[in-house]
């Protein structure tokens, strides 16, 4: 049995806390809101973030960061990506040398273009930082539905430790040393999911969504490989797997926000309607900056940025994608 602090009481942090408690570990979940902590204790349910899913009675809850971190064997950092650096800074005084911190948020910091784990390592250099990602909606993990993910870490020892920590009969965990590839896939797929949602909101069909998923993973992998990620990561669970579920699922907040934009809402109106953090909005500008920095053509990402931040009509953005200069799909095989 391990002592685990789950820092962040959103839907994903709650679902993973339930999983880990049910795996036989001693879990303490942290929220920055004392009122939320009281609700969790009294109701054993995260009513606003994961309604209808009961929390184990043995689970502990706190708004005290020291209590959530000190003397823990592992920390699961589950705050929204935009809050990762600030939360890591708060955690730093309580983190002992070598403490394993596994990040489960997905995003890229716009100002620095750092991944989540890079931010954590900068703020908490004494920690052993890892990442968990894959096609894994909290609504299904919280209910114990079969899910498969990947843990990325710098050492095999840490990756296999986390694999054993999280694995259960309904939660299969693979390991990988490609932390960069895992995180790029997880962050960039949210931008493509916004595009897929916009297409749905415009009333376009399955053909359009299949094209966005396929060309979307091409954009993600082209950038990711140039940045140093492994092509296999983008063809696996943390690439195409996560992209498919985020573009297609009714649970996807990025797809839902895109759908509302396609229906005529502004970006802010869509985010307000979703009532949860839409990570793709925060990653879109960073993705565009990375595209420019590494000189990788990412037309879907470019059009999503134009719709989100420049007021471009969504239907016009789709037309511009369709009417680009014709080109080969790939150059892997030469003409005879």
Oligomer: single chain
The CA-CA distance between the termini, in Å, is 61 Å
Principal-axis shape equals globular
Class computed from helices, strands and strand pairing: alpha/beta
* Tally of helical segments: 16
Summarize the structure in short.
Helix content is 51%, strand content 12%. The chain has helices at residues 11-22, 34-43, 65-69, 84-91, 116-123, 138-141, 156-166, 179-201, 206-227, 231-234, 237-248, 253-262, 267-274, 279-293, 299-309, 314-322, and strands at residues 3-7, 26-30, 60-62, 74-77, 100-103, 128-133, 147-152, 171-176. Helix 4 packs parallel to helix 5 (116-123).
What does this structure look like?
The protein has helices spanning 11-22, 34-43, 65-69, 84-91, 116-123, 138-141, 156-166, 179-201, 206-227, 231-234, 237-248, 253-262, 267-274, 279-293, 299-309, 314-322; strands at residues 3-7, 26-30, 60-62, 74-77, 100-103, 128-133, 147-152, 171-176. The longest helix has 23 residues, at 179-201. The termini are far apart. Helices cover 51% and strands 12% of the residues. Helix 8 (179-201) crosses helix 15 and helix 15 (299-309) packs antiparallel against helix 16 (314-322). With 336 residues, it is an alpha/beta fold. The chain has 16 helices and eight strands. Strands 3-2-1-4-5-6-7-8 form an eight-stranded mixed sheet, with helices on both faces.
């Amino acid at each position: 049995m391990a002592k685990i602090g789950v820092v962040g009481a959103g839907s994903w942090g709650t679902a993973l806390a339930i999983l880990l408690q049910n795996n036989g570990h001693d879990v303490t979940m942290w929220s920055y809101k004392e009122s939320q902590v009281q609700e969790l204790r009294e109701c054993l349910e995260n009513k606003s973030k994961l309604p209808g899913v009961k929390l184990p009675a043995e689970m502990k809850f706190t708004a005290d960061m020291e209590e959530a971190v000190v003397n823990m064997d592992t920390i699961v950092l589950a705050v929204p990506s935009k809050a990762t650096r600030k939360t890591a800074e708060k955690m730093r005084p309580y983190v002992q040398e070598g403490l394993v911190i596994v990040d489960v948020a997905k995003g890229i910091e716009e100002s620095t273009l750092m991944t989540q784990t890079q931010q954590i390592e900068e703020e908490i250099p004494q920690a052993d930082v890892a990442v968990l990602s894959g096609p894994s909606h909290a609504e299904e993990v919280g209910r114990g539905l079969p899910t498969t993910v990947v843990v990325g870490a710098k050492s095999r020892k840490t990756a296999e430790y986390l694999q054993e920590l999280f694995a259960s009969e309904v939660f299969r965990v693979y390991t990988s040393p490609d932390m960069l590839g895992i995180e790029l896939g997880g962050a960039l797929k949210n931008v493509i999911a916004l595009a897929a949602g916009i297409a749905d909101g415009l009333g376009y069909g399955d053909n359009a969504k299949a094209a966005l998923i396929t060309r979307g993973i091409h954009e993600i992998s082209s950038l990711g490989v140039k940045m140093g990620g492994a092509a296999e990561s983008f063809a696996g669970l943390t690439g195409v797997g996560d992209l498919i579920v985020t573009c297609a699922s009714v649970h996807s907040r990025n797809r839902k926000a895109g759908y509302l934009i396609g229906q005529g809402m502004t970006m802010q109106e869509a985010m307000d309607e979703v009532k949860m953090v839409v990570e793709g909005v925060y990653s879109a500008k960073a993705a565009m900056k990375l595209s420019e920095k590494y000189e990788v053509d990412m037309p879907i990402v470019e059009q999503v940025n134009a719709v989100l931040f420049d007021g471009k009509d969504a239907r016009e953005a789709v037309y511009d994608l369709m009417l680009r200069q014709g080109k080969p799909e790939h150059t892997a095989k030469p003409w005879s």
